[in-house]
Sequence to fold (724 residues):
Amino acid sequence: MTTGPNRSRKHAGAQNRNVTIKDLAAELNVSITTISRALNGYTDVGEKTRKKVIDAARRLGYTPNRNAQRLVTRRSHSIAWVQADDDNKFVDPHFVEVMAGVLREARIDHYDIVMTSETPERQLAAYERYVRDGSVDGFIVDLPRPNDPRINFLLEADVPFVVHGREDRQDRYGWVDVDNYGNFYNLTKLILANGHKRIAFINGDERFLYATTRRQAVYDALRDLGHPPETVMYLEGTHPMVEAGFQLTELALADPSITAFLYSSILLATEGLTAVSRAGRVPGQDVMIASMNDELQYLNLAPVDGQITYVRSSLRTAGRALVAEVIRQCERKKTSGTLIPSLFDLGEGVSGDAIAGSVHFA
Amino acid sequence: MTTGPNRSRKHAGAQNRNVTIKDLAAELNVSITTISRALNGYTDVGEKTRKKVIDAARRLGYTPNRNAQRLVTRRSHSIAWVQADDDNKFVDPHFVEVMAGVLREARIDHYDIVMTSETPERQLAAYERYVRDGSVDGFIVDLPRPNDPRINFLLEADVPFVVHGREDRQDRYGWVDVDNYGNFYNLTKLILANGHKRIAFINGDERFLYATTRRQAVYDALRDLGHPPETVMYLEGTHPMVEAGFQLTELALADPSITAFLYSSILLATEGLTAVSRAGRVPGQDVMIASMNDELQYLNLAPVDGQITYVRSSLRTAGRALVAEVIRQCERKKTSGTLIPSLFDLGEGVSGDAIAGSVHFA
DNA sequence: GCTTGTATCCAAAACGTTTTGGCTTAGAAT
DNA sequence: ATTCTAAGCCAAAACGTTTTGGATACAAGC
Fold:
């Protein structure tokens, strides 16, 4: 007598059997080939037959078994999105915003998004498994780091994927990104144009490339406009950038020569605003607060209206573009990078045009 | 000549073929049956053979094709989580918190979570399709409404699912919930015990049952402690409860007899705190702010420390329980409801014990 | 009448597993 | 010597599709 496998896999059993292509064929006295071809829109089935098939399919509630389809076509019509779960860190409102776009776009093309979280050490293993077991057709890669092993692997495996963000091999894969450099260059320029002599820059986590790019942009702007690097007090938050906004701003407030605060995220900025207000400083009057605004839907900016100068950029749009791109690759159309456009949006009390205006300061 | 289907489904092509069970069998000169049984831990394969198989599998990088497994076992080892995408509404920080738990637990049991967003009208269709095409083994249902059609359908289809929240048929399915009634009953009791005579209650969206339950709890507490219903000014936010906190609080502030503010979510509460402070009122001194705290990881409560009295309850834990329960059903163990325990957590300036203490007010 | 073409249809193979129901062989029990 | 048991292996069927390579019938062209 043989016994079952070690990890007992009891069957769900008693699953009310769904109607199959065979049932349909029997019902209509045609071959299963005809059913399949009728339903998939081939031209070699007569119009009356096709109608008969479609009607019967609807009537009997026939839906092709996805697993059989996946097996024979070798396509799963799903894409994987592996989250880094380094204990508590992957939860980030920015991420949800992207996800909204991802899910929306995937739905349109009838793709499924399969989401997993994995600890950093085991992430790569998850990718490998998904590639080898045929679970998914492609991948979304988030928050790339320098020389990211996930990208190494996916390039090597030659499997469709898209990156949210860029690194040095950006010409070898599809990516979607905001213009981090341009936006922070312009924000810095704007602050300087308003006469500020010292700036606190609260950046994101430099383990991720977007933060590095932003830092470079800020210092480049300083240099190009003839200001010394000491103009900025540089502060780095850790990902996801919470708890940081308040504390780091308080730190910067200790130096009274600082009159402008530049934040890498609107989330940091709103916290910073609280700290600034508590310290008795008045945004738009004796201090300027600038930030990137990723248009987090849940975040109510009404209370801080007119107190923060920001550049808007839709993470949701980025999410949609991500899926569009990876699906394009799955269907073997050409690969390309997508730059998500940003909008300059100035708070109240703004004078002049977008770049020159806002909270003028001697 | 016949032409292809209307919606052209080009194959991804050139997929470097993965190693199959046949390859492995050929390599080792054993049958595929033996490979399968060796890898799945059956006892009718010799130990030397099993070792040989396992070694070769690792060496050649063999991973069983998931789609073939799904087809033959009729189990997908994945569960669906369909989000309502009524344009902008499904993005909610509470949701992410639950998701963190969901993904974490799913990973442990090697289940995949397939996520979709669907417009409200088409949600049910998504459920039907998933049931019929064998994509998933079970479902997670979020934010149940009264007589929820999704629950009707899933009960009818007799397919594993779990509900985050409860409604009147809670004995017929597995669910996970916080003790909404108990928590708000106690919070109200606490406010009254501190001598407050008028309370503003900013609740969540009553289209969802948790909000209704909370309202009932508040009014029951009033009644049980002999206070008239007019004690509370009732304000309802719309889901997801953003933009509401600030405005509704301002509205309530217009009535100076109100000295306590009770919020359905810490998100509302922090916004409300801003409004209260702006109005020159001092939390913990001339006004009390109480709330449910769902332990949103990204939300920095340090700045508001000691100013809000709350009951803590982990949405992440709820997420984990959701998955555990639905998997239990998929594997045909018994079904049960899970109540997520809450913690009373009082702000600074608290006197006395958890229920009687906090911000005493004449 | 014979060929060619066209419109419909279909049998069978294939996808990569798991599972069923054996079949050997070797040793123990009779 | 025969029967029984257990250990170890395997061929074949099955899961539900899609796709290949015809087959059939009928009309048109010669």
Summary: The longest helix of chain A spans residues 93-108. Residues 1-2, 20-22, 32-33, 36-37, 40, 64-73 of chain A lie near DNA strand D (CB under 10 Å from a C1'). Residues 78-177+317-340 of chain A form a domain with the Rossmann fold fold (CATH 3.40.50.2300).
